[in-house]
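Supplementary Methods S3. Complex input for the fe (ii) ion-bound model.
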Amino acid sequence: MLFRLAHLSDIHLGPLPAIKRRELLSKRITGYANWRLNRKGAMHDGFLDALVAHMLAAKPDHIAVTGDLVNLALREEMRLARAWLETLGDADSVSAVPGNHDTYVPGALKDILELWRPFMSGDDAADGNPFPYLRRRGPMALIGTNSGRATMPFMATGSFRSQQAYDTARLLDKTRDEGLFRIVMIHHPPFENATAWSKRLIGSSRFRMMIAEHGAELVLHGHTHIDSVEAIDGPDGLVPIVGVPSASVAPRDQRPESDTAKRRPGARYNLFAINGAPGGWRCQMEEYGFRDGDKEVSLIAERTLQSPP
Ligand SMILES: [Fe+2]
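Predicted complex, serialized as structure tokens:
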């Protein structure tokens, strides 16, 4: 059975709703200034909408969203993001995890769980903190983790602490025994030297130790706004780690001069085609999005991440 999984990330949904002055009394002030300076001109809903339309036309079996749906974790943004999630499909076929922008200030996680929970909960539908959650879909085990947490101004770090590592390891063991293709979703990239120090994943080596011992077939992340394919050690060989660029950024040549993030490509999503069985998985990846000069979505690259021996 062929299973097709679409991955997108870092939506940073705009436009920013009107902000009450009270809501700016926090880390949000720096975030708001930053957003006004850097993001407003570079992010266009038109690209996001066209990208999502292209992705939905491909009729993936499931969609993974690895965080940063919003900018400042305002309640109004979160409502907008809930409505946007619903445009992707029903909550059973869309799995999301939070990013640092979704958990921008203390208390944001509570709002997220209130508004986004159907898209961020396991098959067991437990109450309380759902992370890590497990969803079984066809031959896949989708494991959603939360690396987002409120930080000091100018920081965009995430964390992966020992309790979450312990719980995730248990899910990895269980689903390996069930013969499933295990996909771990995390907002922050968990490979070495993945980001600037102020944006890093605290507990990144803990994450890698967990994978080295318990394994996984694929790790998906966002946060960098850059396309990347890395690999870390698993118990039976390398485990691919795939980062997808932001789903809402204009191509480079259509961004304002003031845009400083020149390395970041235009909006993209990845589509994975997975079939096979333990010891003989095949996983192929197609990258779709806007190249410089593009007005429409096209296939940018194809690669094989795993193939049977
Ligand atoms: Fe992020």
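Residues 28 and 72 are 6 Å apart (CA to CA). The two ends are 19 Å apart (CA to CA).
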